[in-house]
UniProtKB/TrEMBL annotation:
The keyword Methyltransferase applies. Monomer. The active site is at 166 (proton acceptor). Keywords: Methyltransferase, RNA-binding, rRNA processing, S-adenosyl-L-methionine, Transferase. The gene is rlmJ. Its EC number is 2.1.1.266. It catalyses: adenosine(2030) in 23S rRNA + S-adenosyl-L-methionine = N(6)-methyladenosine(2030) in 23S rRNA + S-adenosyl-L-homocysteine + H(+). One of its GO terms (biological process) is rRNA base methylation. The record marks 4 as: Interaction with substrate rRNA. The lineage of its organism: Bacteria, Pseudomonadati, Pseudomonadota, Gammaproteobacteria, Oceanospirillales. Gene3D superfamilies: Vaccinia Virus protein VP39 (3.40.50.150). One of its GO terms (molecular function) is 23S rRNA (adenine(2030)-N(6))-methyltransferase activity. This is Ribosomal RNA large subunit methyltransferase J. GO terms for cellular component: cytosol.
Amino acid sequence: MLSYQHAYHAGNFADVQKHLTLYTIVNHLLRKESSITYIDTHAGRGLYPLATKETQRLKEYREGIWPLWQSRHQLANPLLNEWLNILEGAQPEIAELSHYPGSPWWLSQQLRQQDLLKLFELHPGEHEHLNVQVLPKQAQRIYGDGLASLRKLLPVATPRLCMLIDPSYERKTEYQEVVEAVVYTMEKARHAVVMVWYPLLPAGHHHTLLAGLKESGIAKIWRSELQLYQQSEQTHGMYGSGMLVINPPWGLGEHLTAAMAEITPLLGATSRYHMDWLVGE
Ligand code: SAM
């Protein structure tokens, strides 16, 4: 039984890191004409009105997208400005931040005629929300298990594949399931660009994911971690969030470092961003 609902966390610092990374990667991929299949294995609702009682309960966006939005006219980084301009497009009133879009929306913004988008969501209520979003016709919404479905989907028919794996990690076994899904994907689509999001929690379960991928033999695994708090300060809840990118586009790290250098001070005095290669070439 799934209980996680992303509406409680929409627009938090992890979403900022995740969606800015996603946007930057897709921008790089669009430099070539050849078609791309995007797979979002854990899609969520697609769009989150911030005024709902779920989002208002924790108001996590206040420590995420909110300070960025407030400073948007003073930011110098071109990537960040471009990303925030696109976010403005999700708002019914341009000057007011009332909605935060999820990964299906960010992926849909950059979808071309020749591309396909497959959005998996396993929670019936979340899938229903996703179903009423206005998305381009190449976006297919599937009520199903995004990881298990890879067995039927891969290899894809398009020359290129880009995947986001963004589980809620409600079950500890999901860390290992993600490793298996990535290994399978890389066997079937060696050049796929695969993004994996993970939480930094005091229990340190993400080490299962990192160790599993390190031992898998997969090369070119880039890692970035955004820490909002010192690990020692936080006894429960997320102190940070991580993104892995397998086969990252050339220059990704450079672009994100520059953008994150402007973002981190806005997220708080202890916030910091770090990137490295979990596994090199
Ligand atoms: N990717 C979304 C975004 O960036 O806006 C957020 C996704 S949220 C962290 C995780 C979602 O995955 C939840 O909506 C949950 O119901 C769904 N989910 C959990 N297990 C799943 C599975 N095996 N297949 C597909 N969806 C799943």
